[in-house]
Amino acid sequence: MGRWRLSRRKLLFLCVLCTSLLLFLHLPTSPHHFSLSPSSTLCLSRFHRISWTHSPPPAWSWAKSENCYFRRFSRKHASELLRGAWILAAGDSQARLVVLALLRLLLDPTEVSTVEPDLFRRHSDYHITLPDRGIKVDFLWAPYESNITWLLRDIQHTRHYPDLLILGSGLWHMLHITNPSLYGTALTEIKQEAVSLLEPSGSLHPHMFWLGLPKLVNSKLNTEEKKEKMTGNMLEAYNWEVKWRGMPKGSSGPFMLLDIGLLTRGCGPLCTLDGMHYDGAVYDAAVNIMLNSMLIESQ
């Protein structure tokens, strides 16, 4: 698959479709060198201002934000934006749910019903191509931080860069290792490898997103071990490591943070059956935040 690049013609077409979201866009060769205007920076800080309604099923909408014109992507708009792209997601079940939300946006419901069983095979990888749009989506089961570190090293070694990289971990570490400090050390290694992807000059680099941990509803967790180890205090400690280790761009890190924690708190405990995995509306919101941020960062 050839490298993905948004032409000016395509970008102007997208601007019209998205009701003049942005004008004269061009994707830079490296997100490390984004130069955002003050208004763009302000809008990036407002991505997660979501309003929720809880009459079943849960639904979300953008909160009103002056001078920030966020739009929900249709299948047509998302397909045009991502045409020719290689999308690589790696992580635990939260990353898998984000991939499902992306496929629900790109495919019609009958197609989703045929791919969902394969996507949710326990502890497995998943791969799909959409030949009519030249889109390739890969999900790699990578529950531990070391899995992600080795993936980034492999990308750097092969110089076969995805166009969109979605990463996230922490739940397995919290359950099976239960040590925030060790989690933070592992995050530092991920950050170092991610930054190294941005360093070679003259190369095309991926847009990189990090998935925050969801709000855990302890009373709904489905095993006693989870209830004992995955407490609110432990979740807070793990979230603190993400910020203190400088993973998000707001902390000089390489990743745009998709704040699943904030989105799940907004949707609320009625949006989860097992206290950890949430209604699809949460991950649909995350995908729309991701696509909008790609446009704004390309201003």
From TrEMBL:
<keyword id="KW-1133">Transmembrane helix</keyword>
<protein>
    <submittedName>
        <fullName>Pmr5/Cas1p GDSL/SGNH-like acyl-esterase family protein</fullName>
    </submittedName>
</protein>
<keyword id="KW-0472">Membrane</keyword>
<feature type="signal peptide">
    <location>
        <begin position="1"/>
        <end position="31"/>
    </location>
</feature>
<dbReference type="GO" id="GO:0005794">
    <property type="term" value="C:Golgi apparatus"/>
</dbReference>
<dbReference type="GO" id="GO:0045492">
    <property type="term" value="P:xylan biosynthetic process"/>
</dbReference>
<dbReference type="GO" id="GO:0016407">
    <property type="term" value="F:acetyltransferase activity"/>
</dbReference>
<keyword id="KW-0732">Signal</keyword>
<keyword id="KW-0812">Transmembrane</keyword>
<dbReference type="GO" id="GO:0016020">
    <property type="term" value="C:membrane"/>
</dbReference>
